[in-house]
Amino acid sequence: MPVITEIEDLRRLYKRRVPKMFYDYAETGSWSETTFRENTTDFDLIRFRQRVAVDMAGRSTRTKMIGEEVEMPVGLGPVGLTGMQSADGEIKAARAAERFGVPFVLSTMSICSIEDVAAHTTRPFWFQVYTLKDDDFMQRLFDRARKAGCTAIVITVDLQVQGQRHKDIKNGMSAPPKLTPSSIANMMTKVPWGLEMLQTKRRFFGNIVGHASGVSDPSSLSSWTAEAFDPSLDWERIKQFKEMWGGKVIVKGIMDPEDARRAADAGVDAIVVSNHGGRQLDHALSSIRALPEVVKAVGDRLEVHFDGGIRSGQDVLKALALGAHATWSGRAWTYGLGAMGEAGVTKALEILRHELDVSMALCGRRHIEEVDPSILMVDDAFYSYKPAR
Ligand code: GLV
């Protein structure tokens, strides 16, 4: 087993262990993948101000996210199909999150169902929904989430239509995987993955198959999004979902201050600055560049969370310093899961916490609440994109 010291080690191991179709699904952006790449590389335009001889005893990364105690301000963001990255993947990740003390967000596009995850955990998780046309299906999802003890729903608002990901089309990506000569040849090189997969029955979209009607091919993400997603979504509809759910609501996919104000007007509890991991609008700003303006617009009205490009605790610290109340990461834990199952998710969380803790200390801060923009030095290029004139 290689020595794992950083998230990148987990990614490399994950690439070796999991079929190409599923690795590519996670490790992709839309079209030219410019936004996907810049989500990570733009963090490089930000530097820390190192401080010395500051009392660093009694440090803690603990804080709260929407009123819930967390070990560090990093949630496991919703990722589709993680039960294909490792057998029963969502259960493994939710367990790791529970033991570590951070929120787990279950994707509607998960392989394990809401009920499966609830049956294997005790910490309440959050449930992510897309905005679908079928009100009955939406109400049933909300009822199922309530029954499972979920304490918040996360409404993804940036996927009324799907950004094209070339690799998924070329790979014929589906769950369960379609058996073609090339997918079989590739899976035969992933023996431990395959053996585990043969031992579970969870190989379909557990929240959809048997629950949603009118979808021609429920194994295909793209057919489901094209047929079931609501292209007419607007803020009135979001308010309607908020009423149908009746609990805490987080809106994910906000990149613009104007949209952030609308979300605050709709009375939601938190928003997530996110461009869907660079998988939707290619050439949108990276999430980290979008963050400061959104914080300026609504930071005093609701919690602004951040998602996009987090691969280290230093990235977490930079986002917090730019005003995020907390962060989410999708790929970091997915790499861990694909690399080493539940232990890999725990490893990813430990790496992020250690990096966050040490970096915070070297910036002269002992608590998350003390992190502010004054710990940063930012390159002019970070602010270089301006509205067109
Ligand atoms: C689903 O939300 C995806 O980005 O694949």
List key phrases describing it.
389 residues; alpha/beta; TIM Barrel; eight-stranded parallel beta sheet; two-stranded antiparallel ribbon; 16 helices; globular; binds glyoxylic acid; L-lactate dehydrogenase (NAD+) activity; L-lactate dehydrogenase (Cytochrome)
Topology pattern, helix = H, strand = E = HHHEEEEHHEHEHEHHHHHEHEHEHEHE
Low-confidence segments, ≥5 residues, pLDDT <50? Answer: none
Count of individual beta strands = 12
Largest pleated sheet: 8 strands, parallel
Per the CATH scheme, the topology name is TIM Barrel
Q: What is the H level of CATH, i.e. the homologous superfamily? A: Aldolase class I
User: Number of folding domains?
Assistant: 1
The level-1 CATH class: Alpha Beta
Structural class: alpha/beta
Secondary structure tally, helices:
16
Assign a percent range to the helix content: 40-55%
How do the strands of the widest beta sheet line up side by side? Answer: 4-11-10-9-8-7-6-5
Taking all Cα atoms into account, the compactness measure Rg is: 20 Å
Assembly classification: single chain
β-strand amount: 5-15%
Ligand list: glyoxylic acid
Mean pLDDT: 95
CATH architecture: Alpha-Beta Barrel
N→C terminal distance = 55 Å
